[in-house]
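User: Quick one: structure for sequence A, then sequence B.

Assistant: Sequence A:
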Amino acid sequence: MRKELPARKNVRLRGYDYSRPGRYFVTLCVKDGHDMLGNIVTSVGAIINRPKTLVELTKYGDVAEKAIREISVCYQGIFVDKYVIMPNHIHMILVLQSKHESGGRLIIAPTKVSAIVQQYKRSVTKLIGFSMWQKSYHDHIIRDEDEYQRIWQYINENPEKWTEDKYYG
């Protein structure tokens, strides 16, 4: 029996403009928590003979990864700084950069985080032929460098801590 995932609720910051330049921690989940994106595997490192935990992507995980790499191609001034594809969810740090015109006027990215996530999900759905995504997504506005470093480390260590993850099940 699958572990029930946490209930979804609207946690968007009321009144916040999600097209503002900044860094956003985004989590997308597979519907019903099914492990469709990959499998956790342990391999022995060639140099130091220490076990390394990795995510071996499925064909759906491969499509999801390719679509992540396309985000910066589709959206000028927007890129994924760090990501991990887990068996049933994806974590990423999405960066919206500000742009300057020649007159020094600040131009805000015209695309909101929600539009980028929706387009990403649509793209993957179209490529695999069905929707595997849970409705909505989780996001967090990264407010400072310390928080950014903690989230970056969390993403980096997520495969090694899979059995402790709230999405494990």
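Sequence B:
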Amino acid sequence: MHLKDVEMKLVCELIRNTRKSDRELAKLIGVSQPTVSRIRARLEKEGVISYTGVPDLRKLGFQIIAVTFGNSRSGHHSEAIAAKTKAFVDDHANLIFVSSGRGFNSDRIVISVHKSYSDYAEYVRQIRAEWEGFMNMTDSFLISLNSDNILRPISLKYIADCLEKEGLSKKPAANSH
């Protein structure tokens, strides 16, 4: 989907702060308040933007973010496995991203949050117990939220900065056909 410059500016401002009024947004991006309201409503309806808060996980009691890689065993890509996967994801609210993909000798990735290392160990035990025979868990990368070495905390505002800096709102190149 290609967004016009004014639409991309609005998206970037909403990523930075969803609590701004349409009047404030209009002033920031240089259009009228009714224009902002109309564009915002359309972008919401189309699912381009949605609203959630991004909490400080550490302040909520989480100590670990785990990035876990897995590999499905060949021959296990049925509808039953898809249903089992959906049920597992639905039963584990601490899973904040789950997807298939490729890399690190894996075809699955899960990003999860945990209150403690023992909570993480229980999560790994559950994965191994429920998915033995279907999946191999290859490895996890654990991030301590208590570390002094977090150079950039989780925040989606960086996406807005990236969109503006990289000029992703620019029109795509015309077809040479």
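Residues 50 and 115 are 27 Å apart (CA to CA). The helical segments are 5-16, 22-29, 33-45, 79-91, 117-131, 157-165.

User: Thanks, that's what I needed.
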